[in-house]
Amino acid sequence: MGSTWWQYLLLFLAVGASWAGVPFIGTAALGAAAVAASQDKLDPAAVIVVAVLAGEAGGLAGYAIGRRWGRRLLERPGRHRAGREKMMQRGEKLYARWGFLAVFVTPAIVSGTAKMPPYRFALWNLLDSLGWSVSVAASAYGVGRLATGHHSGHDVAILLIGLVAGVLVAVAAMRRHRRRRTQRLGSS
Fold first, then answer.
1. Which is higher by pLDDT, 92 or 15?
2. How many CB atoms are located within 10 Å of the residue 21 CB?
3. Distance from C-alpha of 166 to C-alpha of 68, rounded to nearest angstrom
4. Are 31 and 140 in contact (CB under 8 A)?
5. Per-residue pLDDT reduced to its tens digit, 50-82
6. Of 45-54, 111-120, 159-168, 169-178, which gets the smallest average pLDDT?
7. Which residue has the higher pLDDT, 23 or 38?
8. What string of H, E and C letters represents the secondary structure of the chain?
9. What distance in Å separates the CA atoms of residue 173 and residue 60, rounded to the nearest whole number?
């Protein structure tokens, strides 16, 4: 595998920046690293670990920015002010309706601006990062293996794990949301 530390560093920076809210393509970087792992250029487990840690670090950075300066950033004058305010209104509605599950579908800066408790954000962001990393990396790894003629049961299983992980995260979030909504309606 040679000296690949710089590739892991680039993966960490790309994913971290993406989770912090910088318009950067973290999913593409993780997908590319997973495909490289499928060709034995990187270690697949290390790719996932780096992506999970980067997602957590980037998410915490975005959360801290939102908590400290979120309102000021959103309310500053400029031509995109209306769009920023609309994004925050949608985010606040998501938090009111979905609670902690909103972490899975909103940028970290929104979580900070919405003043989600830090320890709750850290836990749910970590779980989000883990689910996202496993889903994207396993799917890209599996596709990379299959595209290059590796059709073993192991390779197909890894692809399926990635796809199933993504579906399970979505289904679990929807079920939890429905259960909470039913409980709220029942107590009203």
1. 15
2. 20
3. 32
4. yes
5. 999 999 999 999 999 999 998 888 788 888 888
6. 169-178
7. 38
8. CCCCHHHHHHHHHHHHHHHHCCCCCHHHHHHHHHHHHHCCCCCHHHHHHHHHHHHHHHHHHHHHHHHHHHHHHHHCCCCCHHHHHHHHHHHHHHHHHHHHHHHHCCCHHHHHHCCCCHHHHHHHHHHHHHHHHHHHHHHHHHHHHHHCCCCCHHHHHHHHHHHHHHHHHHHHHHHHHHHHHHHHHHHC
9. 21
Residue pair 62/20 in contact by the 8 Å Cβ criterion = yes
- CA–CA gap between residue 73 and residue 81 (Å, rounded): 9
Which are the contacts of 59, defined by CB distance < 8 A and separation ≥ 6? 19, 20, 108, 121, 125, 128, 129
As a whole number of angstroms, the distance between CA 152 and CA 171 comes to: 28
Query: What is the spatial distance between Cα 95 and Cα 106, in angstroms, rounded to a whole number?
Result: 9
Distances (CA, A) of 118 to 109, 134, 166, 180: 12, 24, 25, 22
pLDDT tens digits for range 97-135: 777 788 887 888 888 988 889 999 999 999 999 988 998
